Amino acid sequence: MAAAAEQAAMVELVELLAPAAGEAARAGAAEAALALSGDAAGRRLLAGRPEALTALLELAAGPYPPAGPCPPAARHALGCLVNVSAEPEAREPLLAGLHALLNLLPGGAACGVLANLCREREAARRVLQGLRERGTGMDPLLQALGEPQPPPQLGPLLCNLSQLPEGRRGLLDRSRCSVQRLLPFTQYRDSVIHRRGIVGALRNCCFQYEDHEWLLSEEVDILPFLLLPLAGPEEFPEEEMERLPVDLQYLPQDKQREEEPDIRKMLLEAIMLLTATKAGRRALRDRGTYPVLRELHRWERHPGVLLACRKLIQVLIGDEPGPGMENLLEVKIPEEVEQELQRLDREEEQQQEGEQEEPPR
């Protein structure tokens, strides 16, 4: 009986979302749908009704007058879609309306829906293709970074799009200075969601080892933006201080490190990727990366971040790889060896919980 009642309620909801129901009824139905999407059971129920998702998307997409705030009905519909888009069953119905979603960019709710959809690689590929077909590519997203307060969901969307090589190419387009627009947000305080997404996108861009020399050059100068959130107020000997990038020299006594452990770990992973080539390792050593990491290691308490920091320090202070292994991203590791290394990493991380260790010297 309960299932039958749920289905009847969903049929009624879809009818009330249709244009024929009138503006007031549609607004009430959208508000009810938003409330329904507030828990897992409601999201699953909505995700299983493609006609409801289509009606919500049509309501969200308008058309509405270009000037003025978003009508409450459209705002409620978009809020519901953000919640439901995290459900795998909603992916295909929403991607069927991709054109309408792209028309809503760079609005925050549209970024949120697309960010959720793009967690899956094939969906991210379809979104990138849709952006290319519109002739704009990633420009609307990158331009939104220049707003006084970019949508918080923009960072996660850029991160998920950059999981694909074609997404990374869009961010690494040298003619548009695209990646440079991301850099200031590694210390963006207004939204941890946006900051986390931007750092993830930068980390993904660092997988393109052919761009490392450019990323580390004065044209981009990515290193200070990755190191500064990891740096604290510690003072360094003059010799070490002079090797640091200018932005990391003589930091104030109230300088705070990045507060989120997962973001600190992504920053370390990005720097680790930059050590893939011999030129990258040399650049990081020459610019005082080790002292910053040494002090981070002394301060850090999170086991996963501590392990990532130690591995990076070992690369920087260790011997250079032998001939034919200079590019660490091109070294082929047998699957069984990789699995064993992952197992050892997990064991080491577990052993570190509750422990504090001195960094290698």
Can you give a write-up of this model?
61% of the residues lie in helices and 0% in strands. α1 (2-17) packs across α2 (23-36), α5 (72-84) packs parallel to α8 (108-117) and α20 runs antiparallel to α21 (303-317). It is built from 22 helices and no strands. It has helices spanning 2-17, 23-36, 40-47, 50-61, 72-84, 91-96, 98-103, 108-117, 121-133, 139-144, 154-161, 165-171, 178-182, 192-205, 212-216, 222-227, 238-243, 261-274, 278-286, 289-299, 303-317, 335-352. The longest helix has 18 residues, at 335-352. The model has no long low-confidence stretch (mean pLDDT 89). The chain is mainly α and 361 residues long. The termini are far apart.
Topology:
Layout: H1 2-17, H2 23-36, H3 40-47, H4 50-61, H5 72-84, H6 91-96, H7 98-103, H8 108-117, H9 121-133, H10 139-144, H11 154-161, H12 165-171, H13 178-182, H14 192-205, H15 212-216, H16 222-227, H17 238-243, H18 261-274, H19 278-286, H20 289-299, H21 303-317, H22 335-352
Helix pairs in contact: 1-2, 1-4, 2-5, 4-5, 5-8, 8-11, 11-14, 14-18, 18-21, 20-21, 21-22
Tell me the strand percentage band.
Answer: under 5%
What general form does the structure show? elongated
Order of helices and strands: HHHHHHHHHHHHHHHHHHHHHH
Biggest pleated-sheet summary? none
Q: What separation lies between the terminal Cα atoms?
A: 69 Å
What is the structure about, briefly put?
The chain has helices at residues 2-17, 23-36, 40-47, 50-61, 72-84, 91-96, 98-103, 108-117, 121-133, 139-144, 154-161, 165-171, 178-182, 192-205, 212-216, 222-227, 238-243, 261-274, 278-286, 289-299, 303-317, 335-352. Helix content is 61%, strand content 0%.
